[in-house]
Amino acid sequence: PYQVVLFDEVEKAHGDVFNVLLQVLDDGRLTDGQGRTVDFTNTIIVLTSNLGSQYIAAQPDDEPVEKVEDQVMEMVRSHFRPEFLTRLDEIILFHRLGAGHMAPIVDIQVARVQKLLKDRKVVLNLTDGARAWLGRVGYDPVYG
Question: Which residues form the Clp ATPase C-terminal domain (predicted)?
Answer without folding.
Answer: 97-144
